[in-house]
Amino acid sequence: MEENLKVTSEDFQALPKEEELDAEKIAAPSLTFTQDAWRRLKKNKGAVVSLIIIVIMMVVAFGSTPFINHSELVKSAPQYANLPAKIPGVNINGLNGKLKQGGVWVDQYKANNVPDGKYFVLGTDYLGHSLAQRIIYGTKISLIVAVVATFFDLTIGVSYGIISGWKGGMVDNVMQRIIEIISSIPSLVIVVLMLLVFKPGMTSIICAIAISSWTTMARMIRAETLQLKSQEYVLAARTLGESPVKIAIKHLVPNLSSIIIIQTMYTIPSAIFFEAFLSFIGIGISAPETSLGVLLNDGQKNFQFLPYQMWYPAIVLCVLMISFNLLGDGLRDAFDPKTRR
Amino acid sequence: MKLVKVAASGAIVALCALTLGACGSKSSSSTSKQVLNWNETAELPTMDLSTATDTVSFDMLNNTMEGLYRLGKNSKIEPGLATKTKVSSDGLTYTFTLRKGAKWSNGDKVTAKDFVYSWRRTLNPKTNSQYAYLFEGVKNATDIMNGKKSPETAGIKAVGDYKLVVTLDRQIPYLKLLMGFPVFFPQNQKVVEKYGSKYGTASKYMVYDGPFQMTGWTGTNLKWTLKKNTNYWDKKNVKLSAINYKVNKTTTTSYNLYQSGKLDATSLSAEQAKQLKGQTGYTIRKAASTFYFQYNQKNAAFKNKKIRQALSMVVNREQFVKKVLGDGSVPSKGLVSMGLASRNGEDFATAAYQKNGVTYNLSEAKKLWNEGLKELGKTSLEFTLLSDDTDKAKNTTAFIQSAIESNLKGSKINVSNVPFKTRLARTTSGDFDVVISAWGADFSDPISFLDLFTSDNSYNAGKWSNAQYDKLIAASKTTDAGDTAKRWNDLVSAEKILMNDQGVAPLYQQATAWMIKPKVKGVIYNSAGANYNFKNAYISGN
Amino acid sequence: MKKYLAKRVFYMVLTLFLVATITFFLMKLMPGTPYSNQEKMTPEQISIMNKQYCLDKPVWMQYLIYLVGMLHGDMGTSFQFSNQPVSYLIATRLGASAQLGIQAMIFGVFFGIILGSIAAINRNTWVDTLVTVLSIIGKSVPNFVLAVLLQYYIALKLGILPIADWGGFSYTILPTIALGVGPLAETARFIRTGMVDVLNSDYIELARAKGLSKFQVVYHHALRNSLIPLVTLIGPYTVALMTGSMVIENIFSIPGIGEQFVKSITTNDYPTIMGVTMLFSAGLVAVILLTDIIYGIIDPRIRLAGNGD
């Protein structure tokens, strides 16, 4: 059935000029990729809090450099050894200088004849060093180790993985063999050899990390690149004649971002643990310097008697890790085009 | 779905095993009598007495094997396989009469030939014995070790089955003590040759002539048992039926096991020792080992006596052993450890005590340091302090670094904590400034320490040298060897020279704190040589 | 497929050869000597010992001897345990480490998948946050700290499980947990991320639209696809765990290879270091090959040859 509608020109009405323009206008402000990511990151409360915590920790740790230096670290006061935490005015067992010994809370400050005005907010270690001071310094060292490891992960690991996965064929083959060889030589052997070349300490640990830490990242990235390479949008970009470098930066990296970020979030603890492990077997950072790993390792040995020596560094490490991870989650959600809404 | 099912059944299996395991462990904890559960902190590397080098091996050998003598309390010489000893008037020939009826655990008789075979085997450079040097003084021993003479020329001879004649190049006043050290024990030739390269690599590739025999050691595992040896000649005096050894490398673990009753004895870490001091079972085991600074005299700074004195005086040894080590270690009185040897009731360490050499004196240290620097024409001195990488060593270096840097102006120390063997290698090759070395006596005689610092001794890596010292040590071995009083005086004077010149700066005498259940009785511990003797140990009560 | 495998096996041997070569020469650079008492040994004794361990020959000769020995499965004699062949040492120590490693991996991956899936399905709720925080804590507490805590509270205070030692399943539980928490946390995070991505994709929408139950969607579609990145991770991780975690073995007094390895490094026991390194790399290379094959099976999009175009 056809209904004849008679449409005349009177039925239409021209819009006023301004409205016409409005329809074409994009209401939201134009944002670059990073601006957009930043906007979405800000919405994630956990990530923002974490970011703030990390910034504070970094500021405290690195800002302490002028105050906690070698000559400060090397000072010891064995007469104040192994005192528990004491905060004036706080009367909670464990924070008032008392320590549980054989089931009874004993005031260690009195037992050791510590003068009245003297107190340590987080207690002391076996040489009478303030634990708070050592934790701050240790955090700094651990952060440095973490940053270095992340740097190598992001630079060598990511590019290596993308190239290997993208090129395929012979190139891929050779590159994968190299990874196999590198990851086959235990990092411990590398560290021991580094100790021969350099002195024990940061340099050798950093070199060992530089050599061996990025392989997992490279393998993960390669696997994911293999998958992405056959995706339509990559194909489209290729067909349009986009250069491989541009494809990698514009298409692969954003889509790999979730893997990259998660892997990075695991590199950080791994690096910190690697350092802690080295101190466990006795070739890590050497005294008077310290790191969170060293502190934890010292603490776990005395855990039964001086639990605070393990708990405080453990808490700092956990807070740091949780912050890094939540921030990482936030960053992933912010950068990953797939989760964009 | 499959995945879930498998997992569920897996969880059930796990749960069953869990409950079963729990039951099992409960029933086994009911202690049967006369069984001792002992902790070791390191594996047993070998049971071949010719190649053993470590304390675990020597302890095991001391309890499963027996030589001419057995060392009792305070290194007292007790009868072993020798029933009679005759020493020639010049002190160069020893004739031992052996016990008849002593048997190996496989039933063979223990004869003088077993000693001859064992000694020759150890001396033979092909055997790779790292303790063969203890034979120095036995006729031709040094030449055999150097490959210049055949092992058959060694000064040991069997006359019949039960007579052993030992001839010496020079007098060895402590020979009887040496006979209680495992390197001098007999070995059964038949068994050694039967097992070839496997000899001593597992409990079954061995034969024993001591109070116990070993079972359950596969060569690489972490537990084994010493079982009473029913072929032992004095078995009626062996009361323990078994000693179960477990290797737990962390003292946290072994102390947990001790608390739960799974172990009867464990050594403690410094912190544990400080906290457990005074509790029942807390025992201090002093070792005849001294930790000391060794200075590299090739470095001009350490050739300066004042610098050496300053470094020694700045260390508050009392505070150090009490607050940092806390495990019963004591400040050294000198190089020779306390309780090692005494004469007329006077301890060697007391006789040779030189207060200045080992005492904390901050103002004097500062003064000497400044004078020393002036003599050197320097305003500051940076050097490396080399030490082991154990917890104890690290605490030590941290304390010493702190003491020196915060008290001696212009000092800067780089601490280098390296594994034991690396430390040894660097020390031997002279690649150090100051090293914290340790020496444990192999037998209870001061010479075991003092021999180290003669000019040509290979352990004297710092190359400290003093002609008078060398002369005194030489005299104690030759002209005065037969005269106890003269020999004693030689050694005392020698140590005084070493201390006054600060050739080395002794820090502390090592001790280890243990928790030992009070029910364990009669364990003999000696500070030198093989430490433990369980022959007469027993358990009484719970 | 056959040709591909042959090629891969050839590469495997090549890799192992290179690792053996590199380790051998690195070992020659290590400081110190294997003898613990050499100051007291005569030069004659040292030269005889060097001869026995072939340390007197030129380095290239030692290298050849070592390679030929390797081919025969002879990895030399340990310095640390006198007269003990390295192959025997490894054989007796590997079992415990392997069992522990596999158990820890199964424990970690199994619970990791469950936790990760739960988090993904309930994403952005408190369940998700809880799982995230737990897995981060699991990952950020060093395993030696966890081991000490487990040993103290579970074994000593509650007395449920053995404190240390090796000898039955109950002895493996605490070390398994201490060792498995790391992989658990990692798996959970990977699964969650992977699954969130997958759950957003079109084919899941389709599956849902078809009326499949939530479980079926997750199990048949989402899980399988999110397992892919995990496979790359699990392989090397398992090898690393199997060849031993020195720390855990140390604390629970387990006769494993990891602890032995660290000790052989500090005592300059070159034959053992090389033996364990070779074992480790052989395992790793084999696992990587296996991973690539599994990859092809679970993800049809990837062709085995790995050269997509």
From TrEMBL, chain A:
<dbReference type="Pfam" id="PF12911">
    <property type="entry name" value="OppC_N"/>
</dbReference>
<dbReference type="InterPro" id="IPR025966">
    <property type="entry name" value="OppC_N"/>
</dbReference>
<feature type="transmembrane region" description="Helical">
    <location>
        <begin position="178"/>
        <end position="197"/>
    </location>
</feature>
<feature type="transmembrane region" description="Helical">
    <location>
        <begin position="203"/>
        <end position="221"/>
    </location>
</feature>
<comment type="similarity">
    <text>Belongs to the binding-protein-dependent transport system permease family. OppBC subfamily.</text>
</comment>
<dbReference type="InterPro" id="IPR050366">
    <property type="entry name" value="BP-dependent_transpt_permease"/>
</dbReference>
<keyword id="KW-1133">Transmembrane helix</keyword>
<dbReference type="InterPro" id="IPR035906">
    <property type="entry name" value="MetI-like_sf"/>
</dbReference>
<protein>
    <submittedName>
        <fullName>Oligopeptide transport system permease protein</fullName>
    </submittedName>
</protein>
<dbReference type="Pfam" id="PF00528">
    <property type="entry name" value="BPD_transp_1"/>
</dbReference>
<keyword id="KW-0472">Membrane</keyword>
<keyword id="KW-0813">Transport</keyword>
<feature type="transmembrane region" description="Helical">
    <location>
        <begin position="266"/>
        <end position="287"/>
    </location>
</feature>
<feature type="domain" description="ABC transmembrane type-1">
    <location>
        <begin position="139"/>
        <end position="328"/>
    </location>
</feature>
<keyword id="KW-0653">Protein transport</keyword>
TrEMBL record, chain B:
<dbReference type="InterPro" id="IPR030678">
    <property type="entry name" value="Peptide/Ni-bd"/>
</dbReference>
<protein>
    <submittedName>
        <fullName>Oligopeptide transport system substrate-binding protein</fullName>
    </submittedName>
</protein>
<dbReference type="InterPro" id="IPR039424">
    <property type="entry name" value="SBP_5"/>
</dbReference>
<comment type="similarity">
    <text>Belongs to the bacterial solute-binding protein 5 family.</text>
</comment>
<dbReference type="InterPro" id="IPR023765">
    <property type="entry name" value="SBP_5_CS"/>
</dbReference>
<feature type="signal peptide">
    <location>
        <begin position="1"/>
        <end position="22"/>
    </location>
</feature>
<feature type="domain" description="Solute-binding protein family 5">
    <location>
        <begin position="76"/>
        <end position="459"/>
    </location>
</feature>
<keyword id="KW-0813">Transport</keyword>
<keyword id="KW-0732">Signal</keyword>
<dbReference type="Pfam" id="PF00496">
    <property type="entry name" value="SBP_bac_5"/>
</dbReference>
<dbReference type="InterPro" id="IPR000914">
    <property type="entry name" value="SBP_5_dom"/>
</dbReference>
From TrEMBL, chain C:
<dbReference type="InterPro" id="IPR000515">
    <property type="entry name" value="MetI-like"/>
</dbReference>
<keyword id="KW-0813">Transport</keyword>
<keyword id="KW-0472">Membrane</keyword>
<dbReference type="InterPro" id="IPR045621">
    <property type="entry name" value="BPD_transp_1_N"/>
</dbReference>
<keyword id="KW-1003">Cell membrane</keyword>
<feature type="transmembrane region" description="Helical">
    <location>
        <begin position="133"/>
        <end position="154"/>
    </location>
</feature>
<feature type="transmembrane region" description="Helical">
    <location>
        <begin position="227"/>
        <end position="252"/>
    </location>
</feature>
<comment type="similarity">
    <text>Belongs to the binding-protein-dependent transport system permease family.</text>
</comment>
<dbReference type="Pfam" id="PF00528">
    <property type="entry name" value="BPD_transp_1"/>
</dbReference>
<feature type="transmembrane region" description="Helical">
    <location>
        <begin position="9"/>
        <end position="27"/>
    </location>
</feature>
<feature type="transmembrane region" description="Helical">
    <location>
        <begin position="166"/>
        <end position="185"/>
    </location>
</feature>
<keyword id="KW-1133">Transmembrane helix</keyword>
<feature type="transmembrane region" description="Helical">
    <location>
        <begin position="100"/>
        <end position="121"/>
    </location>
</feature>
<dbReference type="InterPro" id="IPR035906">
    <property type="entry name" value="MetI-like_sf"/>
</dbReference>
<keyword id="KW-0812">Transmembrane</keyword>
